[in-house]
Write a structure and sequence with these properties.
- The protein is mostly beta strands.
- It contains 1 helix and 42 strands.
- A 5-stranded mixed sheet has the order 37-41-40-39-38, with no helix packed on it.
- Strand 40 and strand 41 form a beta hairpin.
- The longest helix has 4 residues.
- The protein starts with a strand and ends in a 6-residue tail after the last strand.
Length: 605
């Protein structure tokens, strides 16, 4: 049996009493919905922007909550511009609200970027580079609109930033290292440098950097891009996949990396590591987008350093497939593939395609069924997958490579996300619909005040205790509420009131961390960052209070309870947030849901 504790990270000038909890992971069980065999993928396209600014050539798109309101916004940059497209909760429409140009340098030019809270202030900044110049980050001031974003140099360069990913290279439980591919030279004969970076103690200073390989020539095969990470050789270190092969990591990532070539395909521009055949090792999936053809995967041998990687075709006829994403889109337990063609001969035309290759085999013997999402799209260089409308299904966003277009493809297929099965409780009192991003009210219609508290369950009733505080008024009382479904709360009583003058400080929302142990007496692991979906560096603008397990007749659900002190600092809406916490690849992941329903009797949500 393994135990975990969770606590919020605090900064040096804030006060917070850390609550802890124990999660019994051995009881966790996953559930997935079922689908009929004739269910197909269906996406609806919306143009977020038809007139991208700068020089009209966006280089990347990314998704994240840029304004702390719980919705997933879209960031696009490159072409001497940086824009944030604000999601107002209704993303399925043309023309989102655009903020920017936010690029204070007027020189952002790149294909790779990451969203990351570089300065630890609770919002997502943009890590990237100026055009064929220095790498750096653009500081999110915390509110959209207003002034342009300040640029901070993190490293010197005279190269073009093609790929950038954020990873945990040193095994400290924090994805705070960045791997970049930097291209120098002509279009057909690039010299490629692969480096990794780590923020310095003061993030506005130059970051620590280490070279993995310098001056790599793409050669006649023109394999010049594609970046991913994973433990290829099973030694516990994080290796790096690049284009047609992989780099073996040393025990210290600052040491010497060893290159191993795998693929013999012309023009590889994307590379990902996934276990496609269910044998627990990582296979290499590539697309030949740099004037090549085809989508392939290479099967990892028993000895990935010396063995032969067997080549398998997904689609050898696909013209210039520049984008690549691999994940389980239909929730059937195996990987599917998303890509698009970028036909260089028809670059200027609205005649490109976005495809899904559905794995119609299984997790040990994949086979593929090609489906077209869109047949009249603009060229795209780096499409991304993200749950933009927060319905549990992955949507697609893309930039119009060479076109002034930002697109959003909303996933309309009927495949069900995991653990979202139909509720089956026969007693309505046990079914609750939780609405986040709003002020909660009790059954008498009064606002709920229950910050910094905890919860216990007695039979079929939950009792929730927490305190009331108001700006400039300090601590007011400790309140007790009760509920049978976690959504409808009855005020029971004030169980404590102050007798003297007390005051209480407000807190900013923070990142949540956890530790693991096989025994309550320890030893405990180092703290790790609680992953979030979608990415949020402040636990969706909350601080962690507790996690409570809902043990039902059919499932077990873990509910994360966080609070917000928005009444103090004006960021976000609502004082309390309840969210489902799921396990993916053995790690807890906090899932954002603006609205979700839970059945206390069955344990399903």
């Amino acid at each position: 049996m393994q135990y975990r504790t969770l606590a919020n990270k605090t900064d040096g000038h804030k006060m917070r009493t850390l609550s802890t909890l124990v999660i019994l992971m051995s009881f966790f069980q996953g559930f997935r919905g079922t689908e009929t065999s004739n269910t197909r993928f269906a996406f609806s396209r919306f143009y977020v922007d038809r007139d991208y600014g700068g020089n009209g050539k966006p280089g990347f798109v990314r998704a994240g909550d840029m304004d702390g309101d719980g919705d997933v916004d879209i960031v696009a940059g490159g072409g001497r511009a940086l824009f944030v497209y604000e999601n107002d909760g209704t993303p399925n429409k043309e023309g989102w609200t655009r903020h920017g140009n936010l690029d204070s340098t007027d020189n952002m030019g790149l294909n790779g970027a990451c969203l990351y809270d570089a300065d630890g202030d609770g919002d997502l900044d943009v890590i990237g580079a100026k055009y064929r110049s220095d790498l750096g980050w653009w500081e999110n001031p915390g509110r959209l609109g207003g002034r342009r974003w300040e640029y901070h140099k993190l490293g010197g360069s005279d190269t073009f930033l093609h790929d950038l990913i954020r990873v945990d290279l040193d095994g400290d439980g924090q994805a705070s290292e960045f791997v970049a591919t930097l291209n120098r030279g002509s279009y057909w004969s690039s010299k490629i440098t692969i480096k990794w970076f780590r923020p310095s103690a003061s993030p506005t200073q130059l970051w620590e950097s280490h070279v993995i390989e310098d001056g790599r020539n793409e050669g006649r095969s023109h394999c010049h891009a594609g970046l991913d990470t994973g433990d290829v050789d099973g030694d516990g270190n994080v290796d790096i996949a690049f284009s047609n092969g992989w780099y073996e990591a040393p025990d210290d990532p600052a040491g010497r990396w060893i290159r191993h070539e795998v693929a013999t395909v012309y023009g590889i521009s994307n590379a990902l590591l996934r276990d496609l055949d269910g044998d627990t090792d990582l296979d290499l999936i590539v697309s030949a987008g740099h004037h090549g053809r085809g989508l392939f995967w290479f099967e990892c041998p028993a000895n990935p350093k010396a063995g032969t990687w067997s080549k398998h075709e997904v689609d050898s006829s696909l013209v210039h497939p520049e984008s690549l994403a691999v994940l389980d889109l239909d929730f059937d337990g195996d990987y599917d593939i998303v890509t698009c063609d970028l036909d260089f001969d028809r670059w200027a035309e609205q005649a490109h395609h976005v495809y899904v290759y559905q794995n119609t085999g299984n997790s040990s013997a994949p086979s593929w069924s090609k489906g077209e999402i869109s047949g009249d799209s603009y060229a795209s260089h780096k499409l991304q997958l993200s749950d933009i409308n927060l319905d549990g299904k992955m949507d697609i966003i893309s930039e119009g490579c060479g076109h002034k277009i930002i697109s959003y493809y909303e996933n309309r297929c009927s495949y069900r996300p995991p653990r979202r099965a139909e509720l089956s409780s026969t007693e309505g009192k046990h079914v609750g619909t939780i609405q986040n991003n709003t002020i909660w009210k009790d059954t008498d219609g009064n606002e709920i005040w229950c910050n910094g508290g905890h919860m216990i369950r007695q039979d079929d009733t939950f009792y929730w205790v927490g305190y009331k505080t108001k700006p400039r008024m300090g601590f007011r009382s400790i309140k007790l509420y009760s509920s049978t479904n976690l959504a409808d709360w009855k005020f029971e009583n004030n169980i404590l009131r102050p007798e003297g003058p007390f005051s209480i400080l407000g807190w900013n929302s923070t990142q949540t961390k956890y530790a693991t142990s096989t025994s309550l007496s320890g030893p405990w692991s180092e703290l790790k960052v609680l992953l979030t979906d979608p990415i949020s560096n402040d636990s969706f603008n909350t601080q962690h209070d507790f996690v409570i397990p809902i043990v039902g007749t059919e499932a077990r659900t873990y509910v994360y309870a966080g609070d917000r002190y928005s009444q103090h600092h004006g960021k976000g809406v609502g004082r309390n947030v309840f969210l489902p916490m799921c396990w993916e690849d053995g790690e807890p992941v906090l899932k954002w849901r603006k609205t979700w329903t839970i059945d206390i009797a069955t344990g399903r949500h």
